[in-house]
Predict the 3D structure of the following.
Amino acid sequence: MNQKLAAVPGALALATLALCAPAQAQSADAELAEQVRQLRAELQQVRQELDAMKKQAAPVASTPAAPSWSGSPAPAVVPAPAAAPVAAVAPQANAGLSLFGYGELSYSRPTHDTANSVANVGRAVLGWGYRFNERTRMAAELEIENAIASSSDSGEAAIEQMYVEHDLNSNLTAKAGLFLMPAGILNESHEPTRYFGVFRNQVETAIIPTTWRELGVGLQGTTDQGLRWNTGIVTGFDLTKWDPTSSDGRDSPLGSIHQEGQLAKARTLATYLALNYSGIPGFNIGGSVYYGGAGQKQTGFAAPDATVTLAEAHARWQPGRWDLSALAARGRFSGVDALNATFAGQPTPVPDRFGGWYAQAAYKVWSAGEQALWPFARYERLNTAEGYSGLPQGLAPTAQPDTRTVTIGANYYLHPQVVLKADYMRFFDDSSRDRFNLGVGFEF
Amino acid sequence: MPTRRHTLRRGAALGLGAGLWNSAAFAAVYLDIEQARKLLLPEAASFQSWPLALDGAALAAIAQDSHTRVPPGFAPAGWTGLDAQGKPAGWVLADRVTGKYELIDYAVGFAPDGAITGVEVLAYRESHGSEIRNLAWRRQFVGHKGPAQLRFGEDIRSISGATLSCQHVTEGVQRLSALVALQGPHK
């Protein structure tokens, strides 16, 4: 094509010169006329091919994120002298913007108390990310819990995450903002397609307050051998929120005093460290430790130096059609004696310790194309209040037995990102809580 | 062979590390396509462009054979590797897929019989799921021929916490594998 185009002006000039020359012989005229005819035909063909090329080029250019691959390592768009990305996206108005989200809906029917059956739009989350350049980006999630958030409803609108992230090099990333703590299996991967059962497991709800996020700065490093480490300095909990008259602290000690980036008291900050190893495909093992102030040095507060420690370890193994996982988490409040002394006689003082563990097995019994059926079973044992300090004998609430639960059910994936769920939860220590659950979830 | 690949990989990593630390802008860029091609087809002495014909019929066939949805803007690039004697030593295809919400650039090498010689991640733009760069995870693809041998969760294991990246790269490799089976120069 290019050769043809280049040949045309030369040939035309040659023809023009030939035409301007004085007529010499009849045969020469005829030859020239034939050449001009050929050139004209050739030019017409070249024009047609050029038009066809223009038509083909138009839709390609308008396709967002269409990569422009290059055989040479020097594409023009991104200045990267040593090694530019091979696919340089042409700059466009929305090239760096992406949307994502998830939703989960449920129906829950207590088998011994059917009058308390509930149907709920548990979570609707819309996330967006924007890539400012090849190494700086932001991500945020807006969440509505329980369908409606207003002063007369029990719903909640929340910013679940909002942070800026920057690659310091290819193995080290820094972030600042409101982000999820790297604790447990679910907290960072909490979308409904990622876990078995209609509701998140109790240990990663009551002990690790999933979805747990804090404001601060964090670092993440990875190694080629499959090790990921996370560390950072973030806001902590606010123990002044503890309500000894409510059952919230017993349902989830840390969930009842988390700050979630809302005018968070930040006199005392917290630190965390998490390690995860994923160097063997289908196998992950990891753990994390969090430590930080919860009293926030508040004047007039009985426990200004109180602290929270939370540690957990987890493993997940996916051999063949199996998906096996286990997690243990343990938390501790320190420096709460004087505060608990003021809570004497109240139903919910601050516990010294809380913790629990679970083991879960799922098996893919059937799959066809994008669909798959995964029955599962999970055993959980947890206790949100394993004793109290600062309370004289007789004034502390009676220690509660461990909550032991078996959940049996199935996830039916219509698509890897769309799931229908059903399960039955049996509470060994309180059968009034036994329930049957149905759910729908999706993620994109 | 592995020794040579590892040497190349180390050399590339060192060169990249030194060059990228002070570069003005980069994603989590690990390799450029020339380096990736050498790693994927070390026996190739040279590469020439392999023009791919991706009309509607071809895209439909790729979708059907790979059991995946072909994403908008699907535009892989292909090269034929030639050995010192000028004979085809295999093929390299480069493509990109969305991980959770950002693009992942990757390249796949194919032996003359269509079996995968390796998968290289060229650029990654999210912090979550970057574990797909692990050699152990990418090594799972080697030797598999055709999309039916690349089923996510069965032939290719996932990484906990990086599910979407693993799934989408696997589906991308399935599409490229289907493309090689359909249009490979060996056909």
Notes: Chain A has a mean pLDDT of 85. The first helix of chain A runs from residue 2 to 20. The domain at 97-443 of chain A is CATH 2.40.160.10 (Porin).
